[in-house]
Amino acid sequence: MRTRLSALLVRLTALVLATLASAAPSLAAIIYVKKDATGANDGTSWADAYVSFETALANARKASVIVKNIQSFARQEQGKRVVADPCEVVASAIRLLEPSLKASKVKVREDLSCVAHFEMDRDAIQQLILNLLTNAMQASPKGGEIAVSVAEEGALCVMAVRDRGVGIRPADLDRLFTPFFSTKGVYARTADEKRMTGTGLGLAASFGIVRQHGGTIEVESKPGEGALFRVKLPMGKDRDVDRA
What we know:
By secondary structure, the protein is α+β, with helices and mostly antiparallel strands. It folds into 2 domains: 2-74; 82-234, 2-Layer Sandwich (Heat Shock Protein 90), CATH 3.30.565. The protein has helices spanning 2-35, 46-74, 86-104, 122-139, 170-173, 191-194, 202-212, and strands at 82-84, 107-112, 118-120, 145-153, 156-163, 216-221, 227-234.
């Protein structure tokens, strides 16, 4: 067991370090342009620096997501729970992803119905939605649309994320929530998509978050027809039904 845990730690650390390392050249370009104010640079333009900054920022966000997924995946106990508005939590996840969505030219259509507030680990649920949105964005073509909804079904809060991207093969559906299993690049349509790799931790961490909340997560997908992820969380008897 100890050997497996050590191997897991090494692999997770390598993922984070590789992502941070990929940002180094971009940060260096920004530093060179900064030197221009004193008349000493290597000819890097402000336009180049802007592109480098965007690249570095994207890698920093990716590293942040990886770290949070590692924390969620490795967490053995639940985080702090508070009574929160699920619609606000989902909306905040969308806002966090807005720069990446804009860069990917993918739009989000929201249908956030007014539902009861209930006790949850707010940060974990936000990370869960962020993981699903990120996967949907990466599976979508430029100009694509992601549909996000929140609704009540009896005593359940149902959060759904649907994309119209490449979809998932039936043989892969049962392995989606397995740690380190990733389909990124498998269904690639372009050279850029073929270079895309995933950590295989996002959905594994998401599954753990849902399970900690006593809920379920369902997937519907066919190759070429996109994917639908539905998260069902029990709201409990003490939910706040005051939606004013």
